[in-house]
Structure formats: C-alpha cells, structure tokens
Design brief:
The protein is mainly alpha-helical. The protein has helices at 2-18, 58-74, 77-95, 100-119. Helix 1 packs antiparallel against helix 3 and helix 2 (58-74) runs antiparallel to helix 3. It is globular, with a radius of gyration of 19 Å. It comes from Stenotrophomonas capsici.
Length: 125
C-alpha cells in the first residue's frame, strides 16, 4: 500500500508540474521590436542531463531514466527543476522499499501512466 501511495504521489507531482500556464498574448498596440538584420542560427547543445537511477530494479531504473530524459528534453525550463525533484524523491523513496517484486510492479504501472501523460508533451517511451 505504501508503495502504491508513493507511486501515485510521484505521478501526481510530475503531472501537475507538466501543466503550463497559458502565455499572455502580446499587446497589439505595443510597438514592435526592431527586426534584427541577420539572425544567427543557434544550435542547441546536446543534453547530457541524466539521472543516476541505481534502484536495483530494472523497471524502476528504466522509468526514472526515460522520464528524466523526457523532462530534460520536452518540459519548459521553468518547470524542469520541480519535476526533477519529484523524480529524485521517488527514487529515494524506492530505495527504502525491501519488496523489490512489488516495487517492480509499481514502476511498471508508473511507466504505463507516464506514457500517457508525457506522451502529450511529445515524449515516447
């Protein structure tokens, strides 16, 4: 029961953090910003932001790695830290669970739920 509550809580934190407030549209009466003469092409640096899963349960390690990669790649920067903290809290809570079979089942359920919720952001698992 405790594992289920932790998994649901982690999923809820991640789902809520993924919600993005609508951006305020620009004021049409405001003067337009001057156009740049030649915008420079900016290539984003490849991300090396990863999580050290290390739970010892393959299903949980896979969940943590894939969700963390999705957060690093698809979630707006302003929301990443809060979501990554949720991942770290889940990981730390899972380390204390002795029944690894039940934990594996919970992580599989969390992965199935993440496929739906993070799929809306363009992540594929």
């Amino acid at each position: 029961m405790k594992i289920k509550i932790l998994a649901v809580a982690a999923f809820a934190v991640l789902s809520l953090a993924a919600c993005k407030k609508a951006e305020t549209p620009a004021d049409p009466a405001a003067p337009a910003a001057p156009a740049a003469s030649a915008p420079a092409a900016v290539t984003p640096a490849p991300t090396t932001d990863t999580v050290d899963a290390g739970t010892g349960v393959p299903e949980c390690d896979q969940y943590l790695e894939k969700v963390y990669a999705c957060i690093s790649d698809k979630v707006p920067e302003a929301q990443r830290d809060m979501m990554k903290q949720g991942i770290e809290q889940s990981k730390n809570a899972w380390k204390g669970i002795s029944d690894k079979t039940a934990l594996a089942a919970q992580c599989k359920t969390a992965m199935d739920q993440a496929k739906t919720s993070f799929g809306a952001m363009g992540c594929t698992f």
